[in-house]
Amino acid sequence: MPAMLMAAVVPKLRPALRPSLLAQVIGRGRALPQREAVRQYTDKGVVAVKTPFKVQLGEGKLYAWCSCGLSKKQPFCDGAHKAVGMTPVRFKMEETREVWLCGCKQTNDRPFCDGTHRTDAVQNTELGQNVAA
Question: Theoretical Cys-Cys bridge with 86: which of 68, 69, 94, 121, CB 3.0 to 4.6 Å?
């Protein structure tokens, strides 16, 4: 890296990003590897399951419902959305009660089930895939 560029960049970096690490981050002039997209994600995510989840939720508790369909802790978020750039739906219950949370991720009443899982579009979609438009 030219000294002039190094002098302009390095002082503005956090202490952890000094010249040796900076060279690694920049890639020493090489192109950084491209991430290969495995599948496209719609704003409603992929079908995790084709039925809703019946759960008991507590008053005043904060929940994070998986919106991407990739969580291993369905219907709740485990952070898997970070790989696809989506975010979970966070919500707080006003009272303790039993609810049905969407498992197909296609509901229009997020995070609650609205019966969309019964449609042919969802039922004909393979798990882990997007619903065909």
Answer: 68
Is residue 59 within 8 A of residue 95, CB to CB? The reply is yes
Q: Residue 58 CB: number of other CB atoms within 10 A? A: 12
Q: What angle do CA 118, 100, 63 make, to 5 degrees?
A: 130
Q: Which of 108, 122, 116, 115 lies closest to 46, judged by CA?
A: 122
Q: What is the token pair recorded at 34?
A: 């491209």
The first and second tokens of residue 73, run together, are 């802790």
| 3-state secondary structure at position 119 | coil
What integer pLDDT is reported at residue 43 of this predicted model? Answer: 81
Residue 4 clears pLDDT 60, i.e. is over it: no
Token pair for 90? 């966070």
Q: Which residue has the tokens 């019966």?
A: 115
In tens, the pLDDT along 72-97 reads: 999 999 999 999 999 999 999 999 99
| Distance between CA atoms of residues 97 and 75, nearest Å | 16
**Type and span of the H or E element at 91:** strand 89-92
User: Do the Cβ atoms of 112 and 101 come closer than 8 Å?
Assistant: yes
Q: How far apart are CA 121 and CA 95, in angstroms?
A: 34
